[in-house]
């Protein structure tokens, strides 16, 4: 029983094999790596990266992309993993390192809340398309449906009395007419707009709730809850399937795609280098932004997932494996997407650029339409949307676990740790209710508004402040010693330089680039009204504003006769900062050291130009 208490066990609970009995650990390191891969590899890898690559110089885009991965992506990934693993705390608890900056943790929670709300709506739409693909003929194949308009023009012929065999034959035969894409609307686009969304004419015109979408949203949240019902113990088992099967589907779609006519043209469009674009600042900005956002930095999820690692786990190795896997998946997905789009362009006799799209337009309009040209199209559609569901769920698991872990760690009572499932259920129910407005006829407008503003420049600011806090307020020497104590070796020199200088500079560049390149959001021809953009900016600022508000609160509550003394105390590491378990609190964290000694060795910070620059 003594060992259990030593490991932080909850009194009254049976003995556990976990290193940290109170919080729990991953069953093994494969679970952590697969979960982190599932978290980092999301919908953006499929529907954003290939489009960015083709728009920014094809193969030439790979150069700035991998440079940004090496100098910004992997170092930030390693920083967050080591941060969470060292303290064994979620995105709030880790800020014992410098309590004044705890607002950064609250900002991460706000960002994860926003993303979790709209991300699950995208997953639920994928669920809907998945269910609608369980038919002999995909409902967006022809223009002879009640929701179609006179402008609808399909890419396959629509015989009125076609049997399934005749329909299949017509699909194999390809297109019987060449249409002008500037004037036509495709059956898949009309199915998306007029049937699935029944989209309203304005963001303020909510109309009715789309009951099929609402039902799929309930299913989506229920699946996420079931997979997290026992926290990382249950989700760690689920990811063996959810993190690996998308690669099986990608490979199946890749093999099918490259065997089609026109596929090579699509892949050429995707990869042909335009080296002159390497000199364009926008290309480098897009590369840096894509690396930053696709790895999930500053969401709080990386810190949370790493907090369930064993203390001496080699998170340096993990960060490299996960980061490279994420980027390789993006490149691989490009072949899958553009081989099919090349086939579609070949059949339409139009350039690939006219069928290329990104975001929901790719997932729910362009790619589904291309699938109607294939024999046994429902099978390929089922596989594609099942892959999207799994990619989305992998990210959603971590978003929900981030919020739940932050709440449980912050309250920290034995009761709430034993009843973590209740917290998970409560957060899932609240997330479902907050997602209901996104299932209305104006839901797509709000979804895109949240996607563009809720997690844009605010993430960059959060990440930049985190780097400054850890490297310059807490002190880079202190942190390097902490990492060496945990891993058994200090961070490589390259990572020391990146953490202190290169990565913060790149993050600042991303922020400046984001501001300069800002354009008000639009959806097709719809221009968002000013009041909705104001709401978008409020969402963006709501996560950032947590940082100064909490800092002022902490300074005001800190002891000291002068503002300087209060500031110094608020920045100083908390006496409880360090490894969570007593057996790991060695050296300057050893229990025999007095509280004052621990404070001074861990958290003394210099002021007025004496920051840790050397």
From TrEMBL:
Its main location: membrane. GO terms for biological process: amino acid import across plasma membrane; neurotransmitter transport. Disulfide bonds join 143-152. Na(+) binds at residues 38, 40-41, 45, 294, 326, 391. GO terms for cellular component: plasma membrane. Residues 1-22 are annotated as: Disordered. Keywords: Amino-acid transport, Cell membrane, Disulfide bond, Membrane, Metal-binding, Neurotransmitter transport, Sodium, Symport, Transmembrane, Transmembrane helix, Transport. It catalyses: glycine(out) + chloride(out) + 2 Na(+)(out) = glycine(in) + chloride(in) + 2 Na(+)(in). One of its GO terms (molecular function) is amino acid:sodium symporter activity. It is a multi-pass membrane protein. It is found in: Cell membrane. The chain crosses the membrane at residues 32-50, 62-83, 104-131, 211-229, 238-258, 291-308, 320-345, 379-400, 421-447, 453-476, 497-518, 530-553. Signal peptide: none annotated. PANTHER family: SODIUM- AND CHLORIDE-DEPENDENT GLYCINE TRANSPORTER 1, SODIUM/CHLORIDE DEPENDENT TRANSPORTER. Belongs to the sodium:neurotransmitter symporter (SNF) (TC 2.A.22) family. SLC6A9 subfamily. This is Transporter. It comes from Sparus aurata (Gilthead sea bream).
């Amino acid at each position: 029983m003594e060992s259990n208490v030593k490991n932080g066990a909850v009194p009254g609970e049976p003995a556990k094999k976990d290193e940290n009995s109170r919080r729990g650990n991953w069953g093994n390191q494969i679970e952590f790596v697969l979960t982190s891969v599932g978290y980092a590899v999301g919908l953006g890898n499929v529907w954003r990266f290939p489009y960015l690559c083709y728009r920014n110089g094809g193969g030439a885009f790979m150069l700035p992309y991998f440079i940004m991965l090496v100098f910004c992506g992997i170092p930030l990934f390693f920083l967050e993993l080591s941060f969470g693993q060292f303290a064994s705390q979620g995105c709030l608890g880790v800020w014992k390192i410098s309590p004044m900056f705890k607002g950064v943790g609250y900002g991460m929670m706000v960002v994860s809340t926003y993303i979790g709300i709209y991300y699950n709506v995208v997953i639920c739409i994928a669920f809907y398309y998945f269910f609608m693909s369980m038919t002999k003929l995909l409902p967006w194949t022809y223009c002879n449906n009640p929701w179609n308009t006179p402008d609808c023009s399909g890419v396959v012929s629509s015989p009125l009395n076609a049997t399934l065999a005749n329909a299949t034959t017509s699909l194999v035969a390809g297109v019987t007419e060449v249409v002008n894409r500037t004037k036509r609307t495709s059956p898949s686009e009309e199915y998306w707009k007029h049937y699935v969304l029944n989209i309203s004419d304005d963001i303020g015109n909510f109309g009715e709730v789309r009951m099929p979408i609402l039902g799929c949203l309930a299913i989506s949240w229920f699946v996420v809850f079931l997979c997290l019902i026992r926290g990382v113990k249950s989700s760690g088992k689920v990811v063996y399937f959810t993190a690996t099967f998308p690669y099986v589907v990608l490979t199946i779609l890749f093999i099918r795609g490259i065997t089609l006519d026109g596929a090579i043209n699509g892949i050429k469009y995707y990869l042909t280098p335009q080296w002159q674009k390497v000199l364009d600042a926008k290309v480098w900005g897009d590369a840096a932004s894509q690396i930053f956002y696709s790895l999930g930095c500053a969401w709080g999820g990386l810190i949370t997932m790493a907090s369930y690692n064993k203390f001496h786990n080699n998170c340096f190795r993990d960060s490299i494996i996960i980061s490279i896997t994420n980027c390789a998946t993006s490149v691989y997905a490009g072949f899958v997407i553009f081989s099919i789009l090349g086939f579609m362009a070949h059949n339409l006799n139009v350039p690939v650029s006219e069928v290329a799209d990104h975001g929901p337009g790719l997932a729910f309009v362009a790619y589904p339409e291309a699938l109607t040209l294939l024999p046994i199209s429902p099978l390929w559609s089922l596989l594609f949307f099942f892959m999207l569901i799994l990619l989305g769920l992998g990210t959603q698991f971590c978003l929900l676990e981030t919020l739940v872990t932050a709440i449980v760690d912050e309250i920290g009572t034995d009761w709430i740790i034993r009843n973590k499932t209740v917290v998970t259920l409560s957060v899932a129910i609240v997330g479902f209710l907050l997602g209901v407005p996104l299932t209305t006829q104006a839901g797509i407008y709000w979804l895109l508004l949240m996607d563009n503003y809720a997690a844009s420049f605010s993430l960059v600011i959060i990440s930049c402040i985190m780097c400054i806090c850890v490297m310059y307020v807490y002190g880079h020497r202190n942190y390097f010693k902490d990492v060496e104590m945990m891993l058994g070796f200090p961070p490589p020199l390259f990572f020391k330089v990146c953490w202190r200088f290169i990565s913060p500079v790149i993050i600042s560049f991303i922020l400046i680039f984001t501001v300069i390149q800002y354009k008000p959001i639009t959806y097709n021809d719809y221009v968002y009204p000013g009041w909705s953009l104001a709401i978008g900016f409020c969402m963006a600022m709501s996560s950032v504003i947590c940082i100064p508000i909490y800092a002022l609160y902490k300074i005001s509550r800190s002891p000291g006769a002068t503002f300087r003394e209060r500031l110094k105390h608020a920045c100083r590491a908390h006496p409880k900062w360090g490894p969570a378990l007593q057996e790991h609190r060695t050296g300057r964290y050893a229990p025999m050291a007095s509280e004052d000694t621990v404070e001074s060795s861990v958290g003394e910070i210099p002021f007025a130009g004496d920051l840790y620059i050397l």
